[in-house]
Design goal:
This protein has one domain: Glycoside hydrolase, family 3, N-terminal domain (TIM Barrel, Alpha-Beta Barrel). α8 links the parallel β6 and β7. It is α/β, with parallel strands linked by helices and about 450 residues long.
Length: about 450
């Protein structure tokens, strides 16, 4: 049964802090414009109702790829066998720092890509060797692999000393809040920081960043998110998140808004157990969802599903495995992009039977870091072969993933990484801190 939210709350909550809802900085590389007006049809008599033409191949979707890229992706996916299709919806984990291990995993299992963690990082040369090896392993596909990393700033910065030290994302919220009704300095600083982070990641060979965090924290009682959250205020959080989305987009890196429907108000850690988000739908619409709605409206290409028990949606079932949670994201917030699970190796879901199959059936497009990547691939392949997993559902998922990678390939080709990416990142980090301290 469909659950209706107070859509007015979602539509207005993100825009009350500022008189205008634009999060761009108005610069030459501000890629936030999405005009929706319709021009008159040439030659049509005055007063005549004329049906608008259908979308062309160059028409962009709300989340990035063009209609043509979606068509190309669908054609590529339609030709995949079960094992290849299963691979295209998995972002694997691997152990150690040997680039060949990551590359072999991608090649053997036809993976969409891998997630790099702090345990996989030694130094910049080793990171580049890893991302290049993975790219070569996927080189004959015609689109780049997903090579992602948690690089939020603050405590969650898996590159360690290899990357620029950015402050926790709470500083972005502070910078936005410092703007007041008329200022833009804070938003400019947030956007510049996200863009600089994205360019530095691309310089190292990454195509995805698992950020920004859209969770609205409750403060000290929140053991997991804390300063990873931009704010305790949903409106401030929404502006910070949407602004970061525009910065990552300008850097031609795929951002991942997380952890839907909101991890900041729970008092347990999903790395260990399944937390309960005990709020009714109206409360979710007022507090947890506005930052996600704002990000979606700003063109977020990917949203990460949290491992959260939300009784108002699906009692006892993690949102990452719940059809009701995916329906909320897509039907109520209008999200059309790639829905990726949080790591399937976390305690909240790791003990469940075949969470990879459950997540895909529920509506996930990408499975992030299963406990055992090879086992998860085998389980998904078998579920496809037996018909337990609907092939059309998994093809839909893989099509979104491939289309987004085609977008990333096109945008990155048009936006080369500057030679001084790291000095720019250092300046951007300092500017962000200064904007927050005003």
């Amino acid at each position: 049964m469909r659950r209706r939210l107070r859509r007015a709350a979602l539509a207005t909550a993100g825009c009350t802090l500022l008189a205008a809802c634009s999060t761009g900085d108005g610069g030459a590389d501000d890629d936030t414009g999405t005009g929706t007006g319709s021009a008159p049809v040439a030659g049509a008599p005055a007063g005549t109702a004329t049906a608008p033409p259908g979308p062309s191949a160059d028409t962009e979707t709300s989340w990035g790829p063009t209609v043509g890229e979606l068509d190309t992706a669908a054609a590529l996916v339609a030709g995949l066998g079960d094992a290849e299709l299963a691979g295209q919806v998995i972002v694997g984990r691997y152990a150690g720092t040997d680039p060949a291990v990551a590359a072999d995993l991608v090649a053997d299992l036809h993976l969409a890509g891998v997630s790099v963690t702090g345990d996989n990082v030694l130094d910049a040369d080793q990171v580049r060797a890893t991302t290049q090896a993975v790219a070569q392993a996927a080189g004959d596909r015609g689109y780049p692999p997903v090579v992602g990393i948690d690089q939020e700033g603050g405590l969650v910065s898996h590159l360690g000393d290899v990357g620029t030290t950015f402050p926790a994302f709470s500083v972005a919220g502070d910078a936005v809040a410092a703007d007041g009704d008329d200022g833009t300095r804070g938003r400019r600083a947030v956007r510049s920081a996200a863009r600089a982070t994205g360019l530095e990641l691309r310089d190292l060979g990454f195509t995805w960043v698992f950020a920004p965090v859209a969770d609205v924290t409750i403060g000290d009682a929140d053991p997991t998110i804390g300063t990873r959250s931009p704010s305790q205020d949903p409106t401030v959080a929404g502006v910070a998140v949407a602004t970061a989305v525009t910065g990552y987009r300008a850097a031609a890196v795929v951002s991942t808004t997380k952890h839907f429907p909101g991890h900041g108000a729970v008092t347990a850690d999903s790395h260990e157990v399944l937390p309960t988000l005990d709020a009714d739908l109206d409360a979710l619409a007022e507090r947890e969802l506005p930052p996600f709605a704002r990000a979606v409206a700003q063109g977020a290409p990917s949203v990460m599903m949290g491992h959260l028990d939300v009784p108002a949606l699906d009692p006892g079932v993690p949102a990452s495995l719940s059809p009701a949670a995916y329906e909320l994201l897509r039907e109520e917030l209008g999200f059309e992009g790639v829905a990726i699970t949080d790591s399937l190796g976390m305690g909240a879901v790791a003990g469940r039977e075949r969470p990879a199959v459950q997540a895909l059936a529920a509506g996930a497009d990408l499975l992030l870091m299963p406990v055992d990547t090879r086992l998860a691939h085998r389980v998904v392949t078998e579920a496809l072969a037996s018909g337990e997993l609907d092939r059309e559902r998994v093809e839909e998922a893989a099509t979104r993933v491939v289309a987004l990678q085609l977008w990333q390939q096109r945008w990155s080709a048009d936006r080369p990484v500057p030679a001084d990416a790291t000095p720019r990142a250092t300046r951007a980090a300092s500017t962000l801190v200064e904007a927050a301290l005003r």
